[in-house]
Design brief:
Rossmann fold; 2 domains; binds adenosine-5'-diphosphate; binds 6-O-phosphono-beta-D-fructofuranose; about 325 residues; about 40% helix; alpha/beta
């Protein structure tokens, strides 16, 4: 017999991502539409432990679909990896009458959700991270907004790179995943794309590529560097010393985490939020929502966390050919 769900909680966890508010809006309105009450949990698992819990009505998510960030706030909470802290958090849920929780975040947040499920709180995860590094889904909320923000910034750097006939290294986010760097590298026509999944750390190859392109008459050289490799400023100094070409580094940083979510992020967030609310209200638990093979679906959290995905060798190599 599935557990009866009368009240659910929603929280955002880990790095924030544009579109999280659209997901929160969908969860609140779909759950209330299903006859279930909703409580917002502020600041991720830290807020849960501090009992920063608010009732949410349909009106509380008005006029947020277009806003970046998360109205609930988010946080990282390392103590949540501890068993007794997880058990205490489940007790807090029961104290507040919360039968199930939807967690919007990445892999780490899913492990927190898995822990709550072990302690009797039904949980559903939604992929909310700009990194696109959750293997069970082809899309994570925030990725499209982040890559468009980065792409527009890199276009601007490319203008000045040409004006000054420089080499420019632009470092993008992704923690240990290279998807933002790969997509922006291709979209910005980068001469080199450095991602942790593929980089051989042979800096001489980059130097040779710069010299060859300059001899061909190219007036700029764009290197998109994933933060998983990082050290862009010192890399710029070494490249300038070796080539004699002025080389500058730009760290895009946190602008990639904000901004008005794109249509794609609002759409995916709205569908995933609604989907998560429906399966939680039906009594499902320990599941994560994803987008795969053209469909929205849900997976067992453990199976999802054990999946792996690779960066396409073809996609990675195409940029070097197209930028020649
Ligand atoms: P993301 O969810 O984007 O991967 P993090 O890896 O920082 O971000 O995880 C976000 C939060 O999820 C952490 O601050 C912690 O509260 C919780 N968390 C991460 N890993 C675990 C784990 N193994 N067990 C329980 N909770 C975890
Ligand atoms: O996981 C999303 C992300 O933006 C990563 O791309 C980045 O490395 C990390 O969060 C930064 O974390 P914080 O906001 O805690 O500095």
């Amino acid at each position: 017999m599935a557990k009866e769900i009368k009240t659910i909680g929603v929280l955002t966890s880990g790095g924030d991502a544009p579109g999280m508010n659209a997901a929160i809006r969908a969860i609140v309105r779909k759950s209330i539409g299903n006859g279930v009450n909703v409580k917002g949990i502020k600041k991720g698992y830290q807020g849960l432990l501090n009992e920063e819990i608010i009732d949410m009505e349909k009106k509380d998510v008005s006029d947020i679909i277009q806003r970046g960030g998360t109205i609930l706030g988010t946080a990282r909470c390392l103590e949540f990896k501890e068993e007794e802290v997880q058990a205490h958090a489940a007790e807090i849920c029961r104290k507040h009458g919360i039968d199930g929780i939807i967690v919007i975040g990445g892999d780490g947040s899913y492990r927190g959700a898995q822990a709550l499920a072990r302690h009797g709180i039904n949980t559903i995860g939604i992929p909310g991270t700009i990194d696109l590094d959750i293997a069970c889904t082809e899309y994570t909320i925030g990725f499209d907004t982040a890559i468009n923000t980065a792409m527009q910034a890199i276009d601007k750097v490319r203008d000045t790179s040409s004006s000054h006939e420089r080499c420019n290294i632009i470092e993008v986010m992704g923690r240990n995943a290279g998807y933002i760097a790969l997509w922006c590298g291709v979209a910005n026509g980068a001469e080199d794309i450095l991602i942790p999944e593929k980089y051989d750390f042979n800096e001489q190859n980059i130097i040779n590529n710069i010299i060859t392109n300059r001899k061909r008459g190219k007036t700029h050289h764009i290197i998109v560097n994933a933060e998983g490799i990082g050290h862009s400023t010192s890399m710029a100094r070494r490249i300038e010393a070796a080539t004699g070409i002025e080389t500058r580094a730009t760290i895009l940083g946190y602008m990639q985490r904000g901004g008005n979510p794109t249509c794609k992020d609002r759409f995916y967030a709205s569908i995933m939020g609604s989907y998560a609310a429906d399966i939680l209200c039906e009594g499902k638990s320990n599941r994560v929502v994803g987008y795969r093979n053209g469909e929205f679906k849900d997976f067992d959290i453990e199976e999802a966390l054990n999946m792996h995905k690779e960066i396409s060798e073809y996609q990675f190599k195409v940029s070097k050919v197209l930028s020649q």
